[in-house]
Amino acid sequence: MGPSILPAPHPLGVSAIASEQGTGVVLTQDGVRLQYNQSGPLDGQNLVFIHGWRQTAAQWQKQVDYFSNASFRVTTYDMRGHGESEKPTFGYRVSRLAADLNDLLRQLKLTNVTLVGHSMGCSVAWAWWDQYHHDHRSSPVNGLVFVDQPATLARNPNWTDEQAAEVSALFLPNQVYDLANDMAGQLVGLLRSMFTDTIPDAEFDWILSQNRKISDANAAALLIDHSFRDWRDVFPRIDVPTLVLAGDLSIAPPRGVEWIASQIPSAEHYTFSSEEKGSHFAFWENPDRFNAVVKDFLKRRASAVEVPGL
Description:
Layout: E1 22-27, E2 33-39, E3 45-50, H1 61-69, E4 72-77, H2 94-107, E5 113-118, H3 120-132, E6 141-147, H4 161-167, H5 173-180, H6 183-192, H7 201-211, H8 216-227, E7 242-247, H9 254-263, E8 268-272, H10 282-285, H11 287-304
Parallel strand pairs: 3-4, 3-5, 5-6, 6-7, 7-8
Antiparallel strand pairs: 1-2, 2-4
Helix pairs in contact: 2-3, 5-8
């Protein structure tokens, strides 16, 4: 049985005190309950994993096991509407999800954090940086890992093919709405396109069940907001160690993902090859390689600046 969450005063009116391993709930400023999980030693370097659109915290299980056993303090959480978190009818926009992330960081009093975002989770991290990273000296975040997300998903109809390819924009505007208007019919095919053909049926079925924990209506609203965000002006203002990860077999062509690293001062990038099962979900399909790449980055970062607990 996991440790209990003990009540105590908190600036936002909510608190959650976790021991070495356990599950708890934070309350967002607009009253939504988000479930989080923590594991690993209390004094370990903080890693916060942010899942993607329609995904859940449970899908980070292969990273949670690895990094918590490697003496990191690992936090995962389900965004509003996703997984085991509360499912309101409002707030399905990236800016609100960034505010939710900020609530989580503050209420859990996390410091020296590396955020690891996958897919839309990268957009949430970019929005957080844009809105809340006001002063690097007092920010709880001092490292970033971005996993397979282009700078924008929707292609401006006036762009040339080369301009769209440079940032790996995936959809024309009408395609975003076509997908949002037929969530039930297109979910399975879209999700399949994010994996290699070698994923076992049982694993895919479980991941599909996780995707279905958010309603199609809420997922559609979030997809529309997410797709039309353009984060290119944020990248040059990121001033902490950053790793950008892409995949040769990803639904997002690696060129545009790698381009992000060229826009962030001193960012590193790595692209998983086809032999490394470099799909949109390389962290699931090849966790050993994924975890090793991220761990190496964290080690290099720790050698450059002293990070408590590493």
